[in-house]
Design goal:
105 residues; alpha+beta; two-stranded antiparallel sheet; 2 helices; 5 strands; globular; Aldolase_TIM; Lysine 2,3-aminomutase
Length: 105
């Protein structure tokens, strides 16, 4: 999945679309040859699309956790408990989700 960077929204897919794609390709190839779809979550790193902690599909917000500390987080006691958000492209949301985001701006 593409990074959340300016002007790249048209290349991105939502988490639920990536999960459906991952599910669709499972079982057709041997385990060692099955590609894994990865989401590069800001401040967390690369995670398989099914490793999220929570997902609000209507608003397109998924929350992720990490299982390691970087050098700058050694003194941060909440680094492993914090939930880091990842946002789906607005165009992949339903009318309710798109309206909610429009109201936020």
């Amino acid at each position: 999945m593409c990074d959340m960077i300016p002007n790249a929204e048209h290349w991105r897919v939502s988490v639920w679309e990536a999960q459906e794609l991952q599910h669709a390709i499972m079982g057709y190839l041997p385990g060692y040859a099955t590609p894994r779809i990865v989401c590069d979550v800001p401040y967390v790193g690369k995670r398989w699309v099914h490793q999220l902690a929570e997902y609000d599909r209507e608003l397109g917000i998924s929350y992720w956790t990490k299982n390691y500390r970087t050098g700058i987080e050694l003194e941060d006691p909440e680094a492993l408990d914090r939930r880091y958000p990842y946002y789906d492209p607005i165009s992949t949301l339903g009318a309710t989700g798109q309206k909610w985001w429009d109201d936020q701006s």
